[in-house]
Amino acid sequence: MQLNQVRVYRSDEKLAREDQLAWKIAEVAADPVEVSNEVTEMVINRLIDNAAVATASLTRAPAIAARAQAQDHPYAPGSTVFGIPGRYGPEWAAWANGVAVRELDYHDTFLAAEYSHPGDNIPPILAVAQHVGRGGHDLVRGIATGYEIQIDLVKAISLHAHKIDHVAHLGPSAAAGIGTLLGLAPETIFQSIGQALHTTTATRQSRKGEISTWKAHAPAFAGKMAVEAVDRAMRGQTSPTPIYEGEDGVIAWLLDGPDAHYEVPLPERGETKRAILDSYTKEHSAEYQAQAWIDLARRLHQRYPELGPDTIERVIIRTSHHTHNVIGSGANDPQKYDPTASRETLDHSIPYIFTVALQDGEWDHEKSYAPERAARPDTVALWNRVVTEEDPEWTRRYHSNDPAEKAFGGSVAITLRDGSVIVDEIAVADAHPLGANPFGREQYIAKFRGLAEGTLEEIEIERFLDLVQRLPELDATELGGLTVTARPGLLLPGPKGLF
To answer: What class of enzyme is it (predicted)?
Structure first.
């Protein structure tokens, strides 16, 4: 990997195009290097994972609305949309599938200087692959690039510190991945990256306070913008330049300002793209920083079945700065303690999640968020006794570059009414590569089967699993089958809007 120095340049300073971050990203995307077998296998895992969580969300309101929008844009050759037959405009397929994948907050993650769900790259890249008639080999290469660029940006450039939403790294990475898929020249990819970034910077209010359905739509919007940016760039249209380093650019005004300096790691020419191997998926439908806490709460439930509002005086969760301030009590969001809060808000509340997992000894993507579950008086009573605190050591481990040390958990101290204290800790989720039950192909398939039950017919489940596991050898016709169709009668027409 090569560390690329990035700073702000005044307009009267000459910054050569080849020295701009967007150009360097474009060169990585245009590099014809092949993908390793290990990375290819992980791409297959993540396609299974995305299909699993998209299937589970097909009857949820955001997915229904986005799918209805796509249905109003049929197109040939076009791209497929989860849940329904037919072909639709690739940008709208990317939109609908992106919402379905993101709705349950249940697919993969990478956390470093910034947050990310790099699986969000897959819907736009797959949509374009189907539309233009590419095969599985090209799709693997495009997805590997999307993961590489997003994860490399996430390692170096914090967005949330300036209240910019994490999808600002997704627009450029998806555009780069599409560029790899199509074998575009660096100049075209460069222009599409600039346009994609310019149109996908927004504030983090979508993940603050009363979290709305837009949380699922935001990454899908970035994917849709990436598809459109590539289309415009292929037609010869240009982007604001330099998009990152300009004195009125993203860094100068939205991030660390005119004195900013970043070191962005990117593969050298000829170096294989392996960043997808640094990412990790979710066993539970909740924000990633809650995964380990669900596992710890389940363990405590088994060890101490007597724990509950009648025995617990106070629960203090000590964790990283990110976890405390984003999904903990450090966010200062009263909605995180509100039993009438939206599902999107509750899955960003460590106090709620820890309480329910401790009481139930399990986590379910539907039952654990049900309004009647959140409103249970004993749950509300215990929930309000759970607080988080930042612990500098867990913050340090969160930011560690050593995979063996990097952690997303913390310690918990449960003070009982009799004065005794139960103390325990967890570093990573059970499903993490270093966790108690790391996810492999078997677990991804089990997740898909479990979430597809009742939504897809058994023959459709087996068809998809057989097809996706042959990904590198799929031709264009077969690649059109990388979708799922719901069982007859399950999906009702969506709401009408403008179209």
So the answer is: lyase
